[in-house]
Amino acid sequence: MQAIIFLTSLALTLYTFIDCARRDDSQINKLPKWGWLLLIVLLSPFGAIAFLIIGRVRGERGPRPPKRRILPPDDDPDFLRKL
Angle 2-7-15 (CA atoms, 0-180°, nearest 5)? Predict the structure, then answer.
């Protein structure tokens, strides 16, 4: 019985650690990413549960579209075309 509880706790901790590490900073609430990673490791099952409940941004599925890069005028093809 203790082995099952230990393995479940370990699996939950590993899952949330990897999930937090792979998320973009904009998809994490309340603390910075490094804070959640420390909390997950140091407070093993309780930090993992806290991350699942309040640390993740809900309602979004999949990655966010990339932000549009601002190009300087000499690299912007639309600007150069208008010259």
Answer: 150
Burial (CB count within 10 angstroms: exposed 0-12, middle 13-18, buried 19+), residue 27: middle
Rg (CA), the chain: 20
Q: Cα-flanking dihedrals φ and ψ of residue 75, to 5°?
A: -105, -10
Determine whether 63 is exposed, middle or buried from the number of CB atoms within 10 Å of its CB (0-12, 13-18, 19+).
exposed
pTM confidence score: 0.68
At 65, list the tokens: 């579209």
Structure confidence by residue, pLDDT tens digits, 9-41: 999 999 999 999 999 888 898 999 999 999 999
Decide if pLDDT at 45 tops 80.
yes
> Residue 68: phi, psi to the nearest 5?
-75, 130
Q: How many CB atoms lie within 10 A of CB 56?
A: 17
